[in-house]
Design a protein that fits this description.
The protein has 329 residues and is mainly α. Helix content is 74%, strand content 0%. It has one domain.
Length: 329
């Protein structure tokens, strides 16, 4: 018995050591990699500064306004898709303004290394609205799964060999097919409940039919398209109107998706700009890709801050008036 206890203690210590080592690695990556990538982006701007400064920079406020409206519309669409998933998982509707507040506040967690903070924030705020932890976790994971897989499928289909290079098309088709299968209701439910069991959470029953899952998948692809349109309109606002539409839309989606999946980079900082610089280079004048990538970060952040404006009245309320609302209303 003593030996058994000692083995368990050693195993526990090993897990803590591994977890600590993994945390240190993530911290180092978060501190080192984004600044390095940003350095190369800024270096690219510096070495081409004569070309960039000679470019006739003009701003078309009309296109920038359309860009901002498209981005805000995309945020609303994603929140509506997430609300639909909440109803499917929990059977309880959530008011749009409550969902908007939860989504907007939890989205701030993406600027913290690890990317888990956005999900944890959503789960915490949903629990404040009366949803069970397992239900909140299931809906949030399902939302992230739809977002990532739909984005990957859209980007790979549009950019084609620019993404997979010399990899046989059959391998790409198989990979995409397996990714989409993960979203098949029965498959996803089994995978999710297995994860909940490991986390010692109650299993959930997801009432999601295949036609509904397919409709949601199309909705998430549309969200990626609208997000890319926002970027394309921003480029038009900077007088880069000759750029091909679908390639630019998909390039921005690819850069954002890779930045999102880079867990060590807060908000994909550095990663998104580096990838976007590479993907935009064939379509823009020499030296213009890097500054456009940096401007896009500033522009999208500005629009995100604008999207927080509806929350100002909520922030001004006293604690007694900010009690959780009834999610069923």
């Amino acid at each position: 018995m003593t030996n058994r206890k000692q083995e368990l203690a050693d195993l526990s210590g090993t897990r803590r050591s591994i977890g600590s080592s993994g945390g240190i690695v993530r911290l180092v990556l978060a501190i080192v990699v984004p600044p390095v990538l940003l350095f190369f982006v800024v270096r690219s701007i510096w070495t081409k500064w004569d070309v960039i400064s000679a470019h006739p920079w003009h701003v078309d406020l009309g296109w920038l306004l359309i860009s901002a409206v498209a981005y805000l519309a995309d945020i609303v669409l994603l929140i509506q898709l997430w609300r639909a998933l909440l109803v499917i998982v929990s059977g309880k509707p959530l008011r749009f303004r409550t969902a908007y507040r939860i989504s907007t506040l939890s989205n701030l967690g993406k600027y913290v290394p690890g990317k888990v903070w956005t999900i944890m924030g959503m789960i915490y705020l949903l629990q404040q609205e009366g949803l069970a932890a397992s239900t909140a976790l299931a809906s949030t994971i399902l939302h992230q799964a739809f977002t990532v897989i739909a984005g990957a499928v859209f980007v790979v289909i549009v950019l084609g060999t620019k993404i997979w290079g010399d990899l046989p098309a059959a391998s790409v088709v198989i990979g995409l097919g397996l990714s989409v299968v993960v979203l098949y209701p029965s498959v996803f439910t089994r995978l999710l409940n297995f994860g909940l069991k490991l986390a010692r959470r109650e299993p959930v029953q997801i009432r999601l039919s295949f036609p509904l899952a397919l409709g949601l998948f199309v909705g998430y692809v549309l969200a990626w398209v609208i997000y890319g349109i926002s970027f394309w309109c921003m480029m038009r606002g900077l007088q880069f109107g000759g750029s091909p539409f679908w390639e630019i839309v998909a390039a921005f989606g690819a850069a954002y998706l890779i930045g999102f999946l880079a867990l060590f980079a807060p908000g994909g900082l550095g990663v998104r700009e580096g990838i976007l610089t590479l993907l935009l280079a064939p379509y823009l004048p020499t030296g213009m890709a890097a500054p456009v990538a940096l401007v896009s970060r500033l522009w999208m952040t500005l629009v995100e801050l604008l999207g927080m404006a509806p929350l100002i009245p909520w922030f001004r309320r006293s604690p007694s008036k900010t009690a959780p609302a009834n999610p069923a209303r």
